[in-house]
Design goal:
Rossmann fold, five-stranded parallel beta sheet, alpha/beta
Length: 237
């Protein structure tokens, strides 16, 4: 998943980014003022925005207002030193999805961030099931037919995103945009490498294949038969 953190305290922003990378399997972009934050939020597809309120150039509430008025539905988690009921109510009424006050507990912050990401992707349960494949969002463990499968960090992130989008075709571009930060060089075959590794670990030992390549379109995680235009379908002819 990909997260934007808009926080003018650089050390705190970097700490939040590290927390999300290590505990929520997220790629993280940073902005240290509201103006830059709004530009990045408008320019990239994020799965979560972590937003401070007291920002230079453009305040957090104003950034939130403009972002929602532009039609963006990405979940927004407010990080604030304020704890007055009126402020909280105003934020939620302005389009924030949740808030946490400084200083915050690490476990609580990660749990709230993960819950908002799941909600934004249409999920409520921390576990995702596709046929006999099960992913745990909290433990980041993967099982097929009850047997644990050990994945690298990036293999897990690719599989998790496909699982959230299960049944749908996900393009290589969409995967790159949601799994890597702003500085990533997108012209690479890295996704193909991770898909190959996932197939070897998840599909090779199983009778039912779950990871499919659809020619010219992308990838799909589903247990059903493929359409004739898929690369696997052509190989079986």
């Amino acid at each position: 998943m990909r997260v934007l953190v808009v926080e003018d305290e650089q050390r705190l922003a970097e700490n939040i980014a590290q927390i999300l990378r290590e505990n929520a399997s997220s790629a993280v972009d940073l902005a240290f003022d509201g103006q830059e934050g709004f530009f990045l939020a408008e320019s990239n597809p994020y799965d979560l925005l972590v937003l401070d309120l007291m920002l230079p150039k453009l305040s957090g509430p104003e950034l939130l207002r403009r972002y929602r008025e532009a039609g963006h539905k990405t979940p927004v988690l407010i990080v604030t030193a304020r704890d007055e009921k009126e402020s909280v109510v105003a934020l939620l009424n302005s389009g924030a999805d949740d808030y946490i006050t400084k200083p915050f507990d690490l476990g609580e912050f990660v749990a709230r961030a993960k819950a908002l990401i799941r909600r934004g992707l249409g999920e409520t349960s921390p576990s995702i099931q596709v046929a006999d494949l099960k992913l745990s969002n909290t433990s980041r463990r993967v099982y097929r037919a009850g047997k644990e499968i050990v994945l690298t960090a990036m293999e897990y992130r690719v599989l998790e995103y496909l699982a959230y989008k299960r049944g749908a075709i996900v393009s290589k571009t969409e995967l790159l945009e949601h799994l890597y930060d702003y500085n990533w060089e997108r012209f690479s075959n890295v996704i193909e490498v991770y898909i190959s590794g996932l197939r070897r670990k998840i599909d090779t030992p199983a009778a039912v294949k779950l990871i499919h390549t659809v020619r010219g379109l992308g990838y799909a995680l589903r247990p059903d038969a493929l359409r004739p235009d898929s690369t696997e379908g052509k190989k079986r002819r």
